[in-house]
Design brief:
The protein is mostly helical. It has a single domain, classed as Serine Threonine Protein Phosphatase 5, Tetratricopeptide repeat (Alpha Horseshoe). Helices cover 80% and strands 0% of the residues. It is flat and about 45 Å long. 21% of the residues are buried.
Amino acid sequence: MGHLSDAAESMLYSQLKEALESIEGACDAIEPVDNQYFYALIHLNYGLILVTLNKNEEALPKFDKSLISFKHVGFLFGVAQDLENFGYIYLSRGDYEDVCSI
């Protein structure tokens, strides 16, 4: 995470791991048929936590689920957020072809 002291980085990492456990529980508790918007929102945030923990490849399917659900409910801001996240991951791995295909 770079600019933080070792103690602060360790504490932040610990908090992110706790957040990851909590959001995994939320994902298990909700299905897209329950509420598409909240399903998408939970998966979007799950993906963001994974990206923060440098688990980009694990984040991609979360963003994909979020994107599909946001499209389904017509929430364009959420669609844009997911597309931005896909773009970030593809660019960070030098996959310029996939960035352009989004």
